[in-house]
Amino acid sequence: MGLLAPAALALLVLAGPIIVLYLLKLRRERRPVSSLLLWPRARASLQANQPWQRFRWSWLLVLQLLVLAALVLGSARPFWTVTAQPTGRNVIVLDTSASMGATDVVPNRLETAKREARRYIEGLHPDDEVALVVGGRQGRVLVSSTRDRELVRRALDGVGLTAEPSDLGELLRLAVGVVGGQGRVVLFSDGVAPAPPLDRLPVPFEFRPVGVAGKNLGITAVQVRPGPGGDEVFVRVDGSIPAPTRVAVRLLSGGRLLDVREVQVSPDGGRAVVFPSVAPGNDVLEVALDTSDDLAVDNRVWVARSGQQTTRILYQGRGNLFLERALALVRGVEVTRIGPGDPLPAERFDLYVFDGVTPNVEGIASWWWVNPPAAGPGFEVGPEVLFPEVSFFDPEHPLLRAVDLGSLALARTRVITATADWRVLATAGPSPILLVRESETGRQLVSAFSLQESDFPLQPGFPIFVANLVAWAGRAGPSSLAVYRPGDLVPIRVRPGATLIRVVRPDGSETVLEPRSELLTFGQTDQLGVYAVIQQAGDQEVDRSLVAVNLLSPDESRTAPRSELPVFGTGARELPAETEVRRELWWIFALAALGLMLAEWWAFYRGIRVRLPAWVRLPRPLGGRRLGRA
Question: Of 227-236, 385-394, 510-519, 590-599, which gets the smallest average pLDDT?
């Protein structure tokens, strides 16, 4: 403890004039009265010869002296000394994904993380720089490296929740680029996300977990498929619960209840419920859970059944009953079949499926190559591997949403070696079994195994996988069966003659697009709900389609927080030695002076009455009297 301006203590001599003012007699105005018997004290004062009066206790005097003491001590700039180690550049990573809205801590996890981040900033060395990276599925640098603490605090105050799932790997990769090897990365998150594809960072790393418990149920998958008596709505409920729980699942349209089903969910895994025979005529269906839990955004999903655009698919192979049935379940799909040796038609298709054949894919935008017998563009095919076990799959990719490959059984697969532009979605042993590639012109998928030599077509996730593939690779337009999540790109096929496209978001705001090509993409899907895509030719509407954006993330619905992450930082850079840092306390005395002045004002204008226990002995003037002006 010390003072930066000790000379300011000399101002304490001002206490003398304040006390003198209380000792001086008042100059009283002369007024005639009928008798002095009622004014003994005033009479005694007038009869004294000196201008001073006897000191009388006054709370106003005490408050004024305390105000003076607080102001003088604040002017002396007191400080206390702590030891701190300069760390260079500190990149604070703040997770804003949907699970950070869980209310197991008050008011929610994000506000708790922001509060902890402010405390971390307060404890940094004055020479340290601070940067702020925020995001859920996609990260962004909110504040570049700076020593301006107030700028970072204001940016923290403006950070809000998103409806996106979390991608910690993306956030950490962005943070490593910002830190540039000159500091450390500090992550504030609940850890509710797939394991990041990073096991070691090239900089020191620290994980600050938030959240205490997970008690939540949410809708993690939804699909509409044709049935014998109408559409069937498939719903999956999952989450983090301490004990088996029964929950009611409601199906609504326009606020009207169509059906309700009850399902029991266990802590070991989710459960599915099917609403059969949903009559046509309801463009938008809503599925809601009757539950009160930590997270509300995953308790409702929407399904749009109108405005479906046709996806034209060409199948080339020896025939695959499982695949043909899965494609038949997808609304708006038109399939053309040709044999293995037949030439490809001249007309164009939205998606090509090659099953165990060797086609010429040059000039084809989007295709799915199943069990390729020979090399293709950007990959080589090696020897066979018998009975491999799945070792990895990416559930966050649009193709594998609501699809579990953990129990996939394979009789054989081929070893595939691909170039860097291919992304691995799943592996069996050391070899990839699902690879994807994206470009501006199209999207391609390679499956290294035959569907007939696996149990994939028998699993409940296979029809969902095919529907995801049609929506992802076909891109004919907004699909009612596609699983769109916040941040996804929604394809829009421009109708002939359309000159204007309006996209109406769930909150009623509009975005206007100019159709410059046959296929557009809309990416401002940060809100949950139903979007309307309206195409106009002048003032006339030529097409209207609906698309629903839902959370549908098993990881976000499982809100149980993690206390640690499988990510480690390296301390290759030697940090400077600890130094002393002064923390000034003048603001505490300034606030105290303000409070004392308010108390003195209250005592002067309103008066105060002192009531103390009987055993406390005070000077006689304080004996319960009302204290007014001095």
Answer: 227-236
Token representation of residue 306: 């109108």
The bridge status of strand 78-84 relative to strand 379-386 is unpaired
In order of 314, 315, 381, 454, the CA distances from 375 in angstroms are 21, 20, 5, 22
Preceding amide of 496 cis, omega within 30: no
pLDDT value at 626 more than 50:
no
Please, which residues have CB within 8 angstroms of residue 277's CB and are 6 or more apart in sequence?
A: 227, 229, 230, 231, 232
Strand order in the sheet with 89-95: 139-146, 129-135, 89-95, 183-189, 205-209
Q: Phi, psi at residue 310, to the nearest 5°?
A: -75, 135
The mean per-residue pLDDT over the stretch 485-503 comes to 87
Going by pLDDT thresholds of 50, 70 and 90, the confidence category of residue 621 is very low
Under the banding of pLDDT at 50, 70 and 90, the label for residue 475 is low
CA 138 to chain centre: 10
Residues in contact with 30: Cβ distance below 8 Å, sequence separation at least 6, in sequence order: none
**Given a cut of 90, is residue 45 above it in pLDDT?**
no
State the DSSP string of 81-117.
EEEE---SEEEEEEE-SGGGG--SSSS-HHHHHHHHH
Instruction: List, in order, residues 6 or more apart from 270 with CB less than 8 Å away.
Output: 220, 236, 237, 238, 239, 554
Quickly tell me which residue has 């301390």 as its tokens: 571
Helix or strand run (H / E) with residue 389? none
* CA separation for the pair 286, 295 (Å, rounded): 18
pTM of the model: 0.67
CB atoms within 10 A of CB 137: 23
Q: SS3 for 132?
A: strand
Name which of 388, 372, 389 is nearest 380 in CA terms.
372
In whole angstroms, what separates CA 388 from the centre of its chain?
37
Q: What is the mean pLDDT of residues 171-193?
A: 88
